[in-house]
Predict the 3D structure of the following.
Amino acid sequence: AKLYRIDGWGAPYFCVNAAGDISVRPHGDATLPHQEIDLMKVVKKASGPKSAGGLGLRLPLLVRFPDVLKHRLESLQQAFDVAIRSNGYGSRYQGVYPVKCNQDRYLVEDIMEFGAPFDFGLEAGSKAELLLAMTCLTRARPEAFLICNGYKDEEYITLALIARSMDLNTVIVLEQEEELDTVVETSERLGVRPVIGLRAKLRTKHSGHFGSTSGEKGKFGLSTAQILSVAQKLQRLEMLDCLQLLHFHIGSQIPSTALLSDGVGEAANIYCELARLGALMRVIDIGGGLGIDYDGSRSGGSDMSVGYGLDEYANAVVRAVMLACDRKHVGHPIICSESGRALVSHQSVLIFEAVSSTTTKSEASPSIWPNHSCLLDELADDAHSDYHNLIAATLRRENETSVQYAEKLKQKCVDHFKDGILGLEHLAAVDVVCDLVSKEFDVADPVKTYHVNLSLFTSIPDFWAIGQLFPIVPIHRLDQRPVVKGILSDLTCDSDGKVDRFIGGQSSLPLHELERGGGAGGYYLGMFLGGAYQEALGGLHNLFGTPSVVRVSQADGPRCFAVTLAVPGASCTDVLRAMQHEPEVMFETLKQRAECAGGDAVSCALALAHSFDTMPYLVSEANGGYSVVSGGDEE
Ligand code: PLP
């Protein structure tokens, strides 16, 4: 557990159990070991054959834990409730979930259910998200907020006003000054009085990657002058009572409570000024940004970690709002937050399998040895003298000199090979000698490449796009010391499809040897804390589709769990159709071609039909090994 910092990023939900597997504590309670769910057992259940009581799903597998989600939501609410009580704050906390973070239907429905006692609402940033949010909120109490953010055209605003007319507590948050005219005109046309919010462009700047859109020159929101102009315009229209909410979002993963207090304080002052100008202010919406500790360091020094927990976050917000309002004698507003990452990151684990491993250093091939010294004797003069110097330095045990000669020799021979004056066997013999020298002096531990049954672009897009690191850990064999340093290479034909940076600044991951050398599977890894944004961003790169999904809840009985939903991943047919291909026509074309070619047309057709129906990741072969179903060139 220490090696992978599980106690740092995983607490209180993930731990290593006595069997050496990762267990999930669905209610975040370490004192209830009988409620722990062994991830390996979930994998066995989900991927085992149906004939043996399994669900027959293929990996990669996304395991969702709604109990964890419930615990996150309740912990967030509780953190604010405690901060409000202990500071004597005069209003309440009422959060919303920004659906952009993960639009999965069951996840959003779970949030609605778990958040119902607290009037938890939803935030939408597009028309499709608004439709989704409206539908889900029809089952919530009328106080739950429906916050409409994002760029808005007339259609979006019409939809938001319809939501208001349906008694959903809808707030149209202006991101641009021009949106006001459309809101005013559309509300007059529909005869619906809007509730309006303003998104303020704060001066407070979050300097991390996620803060690039914050600050005075940020992409979103209204400047001070624009805020004033909107307020004056609403006053002229006798609509200042419609202005009730002030919103800001300084970026995701806010690194420290100092920066948070600064931003909230600035926004709270704008809130108070709007109240002074006559707006009927009721709500301060502090946006998202509540961070999580991806690397378990709690350092707050990078995008990978934040230096605070839920309680400190809530306390800093409540105090900053209170300070500004008390100074200006303005009533305490409802505090709304749009926490996405902090709410949904922990609730799912992506499990994938290492199917083979290769060492990045070439192994000395015994077949070269019988004549390698003859080959080396045939090197050109300059290379030959380097070779002799290398041997002499090695015999004298001069590590550094040997390594230098090895590098020199290698480079020279590569040049000779490119010039066409060195044969392939000679170059291979040089590689072997140089590798032996570096092994002898243990210059660099060989790093193995583990091929994992996954598309990085589909399942961990932020790693590739913005360098975001997620904890990746074997989910079993943690009672054995990992002896290999490994990097992960996915199954796409893209050179970027590899994970070679890990939390804690490591360039390799401690891994176990695969049990049956090359080819066979059985070594499972989990990618944790990826419940936010990764599913929403992942595309169909290389036409690898979505993973299989299971929802796993804690059940009665010691360490028992129930799989309450099992969804197979997208088939080849599904992903092809998503790109406007017509799998039925493709099948017919290929079938006819097989018939014309005169082979065994019936078995060809059966194999084709099977392929269209399987997941685009891997197909099991009769011998229990795997083969990759993909093609194409490296990008
Ligand atoms: N609200 C707005 C307006 C956002 O742009 C975002 C994400 O960038 C969020 C909320 C969610 O932020 P987070 O996931 O950091 O909580």
About this structure: Residues 362-369, 619-635 have pLDDT under 50 and may be disordered.
